[in-house]
Amino acid sequence: MSVTPPPLPKSSPGPPPLPRRKERTGGIPLPPLDLRLLAELPSLDLQARYLVDGFLSGRHRSPQKGSSVEFAEYRDYQHGDDLRRVDWRLFGRTDRLHVKQYEEETQLRVFVVLDTSASMNYTSRPDRLRKIEFARVTLAAIAALAHRQGDAFGLGLAGPDLGDFLRARCSVPHWRTFVGRLQGVAPTGHASLAKALEDLAEIIPGRSLVVIASDFYEETPRLEAALRRLRYDHHDLIGLHVLDPVEVDFDLDHGGFFVDLETGQQIKLDASSAREGYLERFEKYCTELDDLFHTVGGELARLRTDRAPFEALSHYLAQRKERCP
Amino acid sequence: MNWLFPGFLAAGLAIGLPVLLHILRSKPKTVLHFPSLRLLGQTAIRDTRKHRLRRLITLLLRCLIILLLAGAFARPFWINPGTAHRQVLLIAVDNSMSMQATGRWDTLRQQALHQLDQLNPGDQAALLVMQPHPAWLVPMTDDLNQVRSTLQAAKPAYEGTHYGPALQMASDALAATAGGEKTLFWLADEQQSGWQGTDFNQHLPAGLQVIFPAPAADVRRQASLTALEWPADGKRNQFQATIHLFQPLRDQRQIIITAHGQTIGRQPVTLEVGDNHVTIPLPADLKAQGLRVSLDPDDLPADDAAWISSEKPSAGSVLLDASDSTDFLTHALRATSRLATGGFEPSTLPATDWPRGAVALLRNPATFNPPAVDVLNRFFESSGAVWVFVDGSAGQTAWLKERGVQIVERPTPDDPEHLRDWDPDHPVLAAFSGQSMMPLLNVEFTHGFNLQGDALTPLASWPDGEIAIAEWSSNGRRMLITGFPPEREATNWPALPTFVPFVHQAVRWLGSFNNVRSEWKIGDTIPLHGKGIWKAIDALEAQQDATVTDRVRPSIPGLYEFVSGEKSAVYAVNPPAGESDLTPLQNSDQLDRLQSPVAQSQAQPAQTASLSDETSENQQRLWWWVLAICGLALLAELALANRTAM
Hints:
The structure holds 2 protein chains of 2 kinds. Chain A is α/β, with parallel strands linked by helices.
């Protein structure tokens, strides 16, 4: 997935106007999403909507087209049933009261979990989104997509534990609350994602979709235990492994004091000499994460902050399709 | 480890520079925030340790390079313990004629061989022969068998004795040889005449032991034929023999005259100590190229035979033009009359034609102006020998220019100049043969002329390489040209002792071209006319004919003939007169001074030691290896420095 930034209009330095609905739904392809424009949007709400609109118009049509209310079967009237649901036409033919039963409409609960550890507060270039910003926008877009499709969405902020939690609902006020919570996220020091996920598993209803945006600098056994705990409650898991390009490529050619954003530990390092070893370890760690999510039955998408987060939305839609065929 | 130039080691202090730079170098100030050092930590720590180690190694390599460079310039060498304790024996062999005295050579050689037998494997020895010039028979070597066999095969010759140069050469060689115990075995009979001119106060190498072997047995019977002369009237019916008796006070001897291998006469004589002149009659009809006169053998048989050529030497005269100042040339020529080989009595230039066969010494400008120049030209064109002292006069310059010789006056120097590039093999310098050339090198010149011309053969040069003294030859005519006048205003040479022998040899050399001098001594360089065959008619030892050019230096007494084309000349070569006197050095204190060289050499121990050190260093050449290691260290430093850029 390549994102080519379009030329910025010189006369209008502010954010570009959002595309009109006709354009979004009429199949006219929009220009690729520009992360720089996304970053310049004033609010997370706008960012999420911009992202979702760009995603939907560029890749999919809305899944809300058509009705989801389908007839399922008749059953005998029982005392207490709502009389409005009695099929009176059938009563006229059979002289018996039957209740018309429709297939129940399922509402997806989407819980997005944002890792607020200090390691997420990193960007290798000032003009690039920090990892936590990238993750926040991505999760907000997923929530916006859920909201637009009538799914309930909730929020969990992973600090040292589950620091903040927002129950899953699907309403405009809830969306505003959701955006406000995300907007106010501040990176903490050391965070324990596994602990937060374990806490989350205790309080969210089963069969939810849990989208975790993190860099997963976590002890693998603990993380595995937390993920297995979520899967035990039949949650679907989507991991969004948010990485800065420097973390992936380690494209540093100078040395200096490297400071761990979480622990504050400093080491003097010659980047060029450490690059080979780092890349080897990083690849191994990514493989471990992939295996971990695959083992527990989840999915892991690796997102670079220099690219558009469409892959995350694709995973969300794929999961929703599985749950709502 | 020792150092030849330890002062260069001070350059090793330059290691302070990289150390200082290492300490003061700018530390990495870049702070890079990174999400987590989890994947970086172990790698970084390991790499950081490697990095620090590399930096430390780089620093050490830089220091090592500096130290190695300083060490290489300091020229390191090892003192081999074996070398330090090994013995070094130098045997200086006096091969002069006096060593042929009965029992002398065998006795002394036996002592030298015994000394050689005292050496152990690994020790070094050398064999130096003294005459005619000091030369190595066997240079310093570990091969003691070679030294032994060479010494056993050596035998004395007929040369005169000169100890001084041999002692100097042996001293220098031993000083330059590394070793613990150094011994100089002086295989010589300590002939008194041989020590003349030797500096007994010279400094011998430290630790050098000089062995003067036990003196030879007393000479009981010794006489020598010192001169054979034809009568002045030119007749060949008799000749006069001069016999010098050394031992005993009176002796009965018999003179035997031989011609062409046949005895033609015997004459008993009673000799008194000193010179005895004996007139020996000859048959009237004798036709022989020369005669051999011998005495019945005594303790030194080599000088009991002498030869006289039958050819009549044309006694050339020495002509000298007038001098306006002090006549140094006349004084020098007259001083030669006291020499054993005969002197010269100069005469003034005749107004008419000069006599053929004469040698003309020309120093007056008037000689080169008419009408004298016409006489000069006739004399010179008829193969006259000329010695020209250049004064820069117009007539002289023009006369020389006609003969292809240009004269250029030299600028007056601020300090006196000294001549260099003396040709020690030229007959003119025969008087200095085997002696130090320093007296000639020390002569001062304040006025002179450059000599230029293709026909010139230089004998000595000015400091800038221009010719100062030269030989000129063309069509049988020869000329000696000196680029300075014989005046005190131009040079101090006429007042120095070396002037007389130089003038004497120069006149002898010039005169020999026209005057066939037929009586020569061993050690003389005989000038010849061009190229020809030199063959022995009758000699003490058999010799093969030899092809010689211009000159020859016979080494065996005898009667010789030089044949060049249709011309031939007979030369009688007799033993050196001084060798017959077998009297050893009377003042033994002088030898004692040489016997205890350790105390005397304390004045210059560092110099002698440094000579040995330099020899060791030259043999080992460790500085090459040090430089090679330095190069490897430099490559390693370059490789590491590129990986320690931070």
